[in-house]
Amino acid sequence: MTDKALVLRGVTKRFDATDILRGVDLELGAGEFVALVGPSGCGKSTLLRLIAGFDAADSGSIAMAGRPIDRLPPHERDIAMVFQSFALYPHMSVFENLATPLAVRRLSLAGRLPLTRHAVPGARAAWAGIRQDVAEIARMLQIEPLLGRRPGQLSGGQKQRVALGRAIARRPRIFLMDEPLSSLDAALRTELRVELVELQRRLGVSCLYVTHDQTEAMTMADRIAVMLNGRVAQVGTPAEVYGDPQHLAVARFIGTPSINILPAELGADGRLLILGQAQPLRVAADAGPDLTAAIRPEHLAFRRTASRAAEPGDLLASVRHVEHLGHEAMVQLALASRPDLAVSIRVGQARLHEALALAPQEQLALRIAPESRLVFDAAGDRLPAKPVIGQPVATAVAS
User: Fold this and answer.
1) Can you spell out the DSSP letters for 159-180?
2) Residue 310: per-residue pLDDT
3) What whole-number distance in Å separates Cα of residue 239 and Cα of residue 168?
C-alpha cells in the first residue's frame, strides 16, 4: 500500500522516569482499518494522544498524508477522536452535539451565538448547511428520533452513535478510536462493531482503533498492530498475527483461550522434543537450549487411552474440566509429566458429544498437528521449523 494516511517513525514518550513509548514505527494506509492491541499500560492510549496532538512526543516523527503534523495544534490535524467515555456535552441536545463541531469550523463566534448570528453575513446559509449535514449524519446512524434529546436521556448504544456522529461531522482524514465499545454490553458491542466497520468502509476514512478486546480486533481490522512494552511487536492481518506470530509474547497475547506453551529442546537427531516426546519436526542445530513450543488449542487432538495405547510423540494428560460453549467445547487438562502445566483443547462439532462425555481425571493421549507447531528460542524469537520427511502426518481431529 503506497498511499499512507499516517506514518509514525521512532516515536518515544517518557513520563518522569518511565518510558511509555520506546520507538514506535507504524503506518496506516488510506482507507485502512488498523486495530492497536496490547495489555494495559503498553502505551496504546498514549500513542493516540500523541497523534491527536493532546501530548507531544519526546522524539520521532508523525506525518499525515506525507505532511509532518508534529508541531500542529490538535484542531489543525484533520483528525477526529472517539473516546470510551462518549465525551458528549450533557447540557446540549443531540442535534447541538452534532452541530457544534460544524459550527466551530464554519462560523465565527458571533455567527454561532443565537443573539448575534442573524446579523452576521452568510451565517443563515451556513446554518442551513449545518442542519442539512446533521440530518444526513442522523439518517446514516439511525438516530433521527433522538435529535431533540439530551445525553442523559439516551442509552449507552445511542450515546455511542452520537459520539461517532460528532466525529463524522468533522469529515476528518483519520479516525482515532480509544476503546469506544468497551462500556457496552456484549450483544450491543457485537451489533455496533458491525455497523462501525460498515460505516468506516462507506466513508473511506482511515481508522486507528485501540481495543483490549481481541474479538473486536480480529473481526474488524484489516491489520492488527500488537503493542508490547511500548513497542509495536508485530503488524499483520488477523490471520498472520494469529497463525504466524514472530515472537513468543505475541503468540501468548493473541488468541482466546491462550495458546498452549510447552517446554521443548533439540534431540540428538535434531528433532524437536516436547516434554521428552520426539515430534516430526526439525529446527536449526544452532537453535540453542531452552526452546519453547506453542500450540493453539484447536491444533491438539485427544484420544482416550482406555480404547488405544499411546503412540510415539503423544503427550499423556488427565481431564480437569470440560466447558460446554454450545457450538464447541473447551477441555482443560493437566499433563502427566508436568501437572503444573495447564493445557487447553478446542473441540468442534465433529467430536463435541465425545468431549462432553469425558470424566474428570480421565486419561487422554494428545497428538499435535505437525504443521501447527510454533517454536521459539530462549529470547522468544520465532525459529524456522521443517517437518521430518517420511513421518506420518497427524491431523487435529479434535476440531
Assistant:
1) HHHHHHHHHHHT--SEEEEEST
2) 61
3) 30
Q: pTM for the whole thing?
A: 0.85
Q: Choose among 240, 208, 186, 261: nearest CA to 37.
A: 208
pLDDT at residue 306, rounded to an integer: 61
> DSSP of 329-387, one letter per residue?
EEEEEEESS-TTSEEEEEE-GGGHHHHHTPPTT-EEEEEE-GGG-EEE-TTSBEE-EEE
**59 in helix, strand or coil?**
strand
**Residue 117 cell numbers, joined:** 448570528
In single-letter form, the type of residue at position 93 comes to: S
Looking at the chain, how many residues does it have?
399
Q: What is the DSSP string of 301-313?
A: EEEETTTS---TT
pLDDT of residue 254: 93
Residue 97 three-state SS: helix
DSSP state of 247: B
User: pLDDT value at position 390?
Assistant: 58
Q: What is the pLDDT of residue 292?
A: 94
Q: Within 13 A of 397's CA, how many CA atoms are on the CB side?
A: 9
- 205, 164 contact by CB (below 8 A): no
* Stretches in the chain below the pLDDT threshold 50: 1-2, 392-399
Cell for 123?
Answer: 451565517
CA distance 231 to 24: 5
Let me know: does 209 contact 100? Beta carbons within 8 Å: no
Q: How distant, in Å, are the alpha carbons of 15, 48, 79 from that of 74?
A: 21, 12, 8
56 φ, ψ to 5°?
-110, 140
- The one-letter code for the residue type at 28 is L
Domains identified in the chain and CATH numbers: 4-243 (3.40.50.300), 270-387 (2.40.50.140)
**Amino acid occupying residue 282:** R
What's the confidence (pLDDT) of residue 223? 97
